[in-house]
User: Which sequence fits this backbone?
C-alpha cells in the first residue's frame, strides 16, 4: 500500500464539505463542479457570474495553499494527445451523465440520491478498470 | 453581488480542500484507482471527510424554506436511472482513469500554471460544449439549470 495522506485527506475533505454547505445554504446551489463549469459556456447570461466566481475561487484557493508554502505536487499520468482525449471524455461524460465526483460523489450522496449512487459506482468501477487495463494489459 | 462573493468564497474553500488533500495531484487519484498496485487510500478519506460534513449539513439546510441569499434551492429533479446516466458516468470514468483528473481538481491545478493542465481543461470544456450541442441537435432535453445530477 502507498503512503496515504490521511490527515490531509480528512481535513481537505472536510473543507470540501464545508464549501458545498456554504454554496447550498447561501446560494441554494449544488456544488457540482462540472455542472457549474458547463453553465458558464451554455447557461443564461444572468447566471454566469456566480459560476465564473466559483471556478475562479477553485484556482485561487489552491493557489493560496501553494503560496503559503503548502506545495502542489503534480505528477501527470497522461501527456499530449492522450491527455486531450481524456479531457474530451471527462467533458462529454460529465455532461451526458449530469455530474462528476463532486456533484454526484459528494453532494448527490449527501442528498441520498439513488441516481448519484449509481453514477458514482459506475465512474469508480470504470475508472478502476481503465487504470488496470492501461497499466497492466496495454502498457 | 452577494451571490458572486459567496460563490467565490465557497470556491476558494473548495480549492483549498482539494490542495490540502492533494487531489490536485493526478498520481494520488490513479494511486487510489490502481487496486492491483501500491494502493493509495487518500481519496477514501477525502470522500469520508466531505460526507461527514455534507450528509448532516444538507439535511439541516434543506429543512429551511429558502437559501440565505438566493431565491430558492435549485434541487436536481431528475429521478430516472437510465442509459444516459450510466453511459455518461462510464465515459467520464474512462477519461478520469486515463488522466487522474476530474473537473474540480483539474481546475484547481490550473494554479500550478502547468501547460498540460491548461490543455486538459481546454479539452474538457470543449467536450462539455460538444456534448451540450449534440444533445440539443438530437432533440434531447438538456437541463436548463446545468446543475449536476
Assistant:
Amino acid at each position: 500500500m502507498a503512503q496515504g495522506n490521511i490527515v490531509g485527506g480528512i481535513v481537505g475533505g472536510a473543507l470540501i464539505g464545508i464549501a458545498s454547505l456554504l454554496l447550498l445554504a447561501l446560494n441554494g446551489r449544488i456544488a457540482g463542479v462540472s455542472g457549474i463549469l458547463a453553465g458558464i459556456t451554455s447557461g443564461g447570461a444572468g447566471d454566469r457570474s456566480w459560476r465564473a466566481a466559483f471556478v475562479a475561487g477553485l484556482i485561487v484557493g489552491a493557489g493560496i495553499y501553494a503560496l503559503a508554502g503548502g506545495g502542489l505536487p503534480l505528477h501527470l499520468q497522461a501527456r499530449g494527445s492522450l491527455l486531450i482525449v481524456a479531457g474530451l471524455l471527462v467533458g462529454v461524460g460529465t455532461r451526458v451523465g449530469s455530474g462528476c465526483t463532486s456533484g454526484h460523489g459528494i453532494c448527490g450522496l449527501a442528498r441520498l440520491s439513488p441516481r448519484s449512487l449509481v453514477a458514482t459506482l459506475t465512474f469508480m468501477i470504470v475508472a478502476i478498470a481503465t487504470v488496470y487495463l492501461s497499466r497492466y494489459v496495454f502498457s | 453581488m452577494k451571490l458572486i462573493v459567496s460563490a467565490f468564497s465557497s470556491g476558494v474553500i473548495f480549492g483549498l480542500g482539494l490542495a490540502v488533500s492533494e487531489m490536485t495531484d493526478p498520481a494520488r487519484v490513479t494511486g487510489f484507482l490502481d487496486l492491483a498496485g501500491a494502493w493509495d487510500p487518500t481519496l477514501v478519506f477525502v470522500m469520508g471527510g466531505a460526507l461527514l460534513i455534507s450528509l448532516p449539513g444538507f439535511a439541516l439546510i434543506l429543512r429551511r424554506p429558502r437559501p440565505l441569499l438566493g431565491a430558492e434551492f435549485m434541487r436536481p429533479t431528475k429521478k430516472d436511472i437510465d442509459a444516459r446516466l450510466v453511459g455518461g458516468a462510464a465515459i467520464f470514468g474512462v477519461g478520469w482513469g486515463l488522466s487522474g483528473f476530474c473537473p474540480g481538481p483539474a481546475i484547481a491545478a490550473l494554479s500550478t500554471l502547468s501547460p498540460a493542465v491548461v490543455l486538459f481543461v481546454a479539452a474538457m470544456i470543449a467536450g462539455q460544449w460538444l456534448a451540450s450541442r449534440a444533445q440539443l441537435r438530437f432533440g434531447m432535453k438538456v437541463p436548463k439549470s446545468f446543475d449536476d445530477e
